[in-house]
Design brief:
The complex is a heterodimer of chains A (186) and B (128). Chain A is α+β, with helices and mostly antiparallel strands and 186 residues long. Chain A is built from 6 helices and 5 strands. Chain A has a single domain, classed as Heat Shock Protein 90 (2-Layer Sandwich), CATH 3.30.565. A 5-stranded antiparallel beta sheet of chain A has the order 1-2-3-5-4. Chain B is of the alpha/beta class. Chain B has one domain: STAS domain (Transcription Regulator spoIIAA), CATH 3.30.750. The chains are: A alpha+beta (186), B alpha/beta (128). Chains A and B meet through helix 2, helix 3, helix 5 and helix 6 of A and helix 2 and helix 3 of B.
Amino acid sequence: MSLSRFHRFKDLARQENVVFYYTGFFSQSIVAAMGDSLRLRLNSLEASQPLRRKLFSIFVEMAQNIVHYSADALTARDSNDNEVRMGSLWVGEENGHFYVVCANPIGSDNVARIRDKLEPLRSMSNDEIKALYKEKLRAEDEDTSKGAGLGFLTVARDSSNPIEFDFVAEDGAHGPFTTFYLKATI
Amino acid sequence: MQNLYIAATSSTPEVDFRFDSHQLSLRGESYPENAHAFFGPIMDAVQAYLPKLHATTVTLDIQLAYFNSSSTKVLLELFGLFNKAAVAGNYVHLNWHYIEDDETILEFGEEVADDYTALDFHPCAMVG
């Protein structure tokens, strides 16, 4: 990349009001360092403490979702500790609202399961989301979950607009895969 | 039994459990990669401590500015242990510190109080 292309890239990020962008490997220590950086950026912006906490919460749930579930892993698929996985995450500002988007590859066989979890959340009211959250908080952990199975619900709870998501089929060096996108606006 | 102290990191809270004076506190933020791995030894220590109590007053100071979803679930289990001890005849004072206008943190405290009615719940608002 020549420096003029780098300048265009940086300029586009500025035009799009990108607060923070990262693509690469995610591990817990990278998430914590990104969290520190994001917090410094948020402290310099005019945002209330609860709004900053909500944005931080969405960021952590999305970033840890990549650490635990991205299909592109350096570590063993069934590991629970010191996991390292590939993904992207960005935080931006649009029409006076902050948003967080994450993207990571998933196995195409997981598309239906994730869609079934997310689609109902889009049409639920805040109160309905909170009620479901409270119910799941006391439920037994799901077999497929490494955390509490509350990650997507927490993202939906902390976002002020319905969450948006997409699945994009792509061809990789090792065959076809699907990129999963999730966006939350605060 | 030995007191338990774990210094805070950017993703785990300070744990200061003074079992000898029955003053236990958690302060900071909690978003470890694996909440069960972090809280496991803490739960073990609490499970060893509580059965020894008889009509004891225990003060819990919880001042967590942020906790992720998996920590939330483990925290609920932790408070469940204290509720059991309160039902068994001890007095558990839960001071729930939260930043004044942060509803999410307060609401979780209220959830804990709703579920575990034997705990003496005191919300303590802090100016943000």
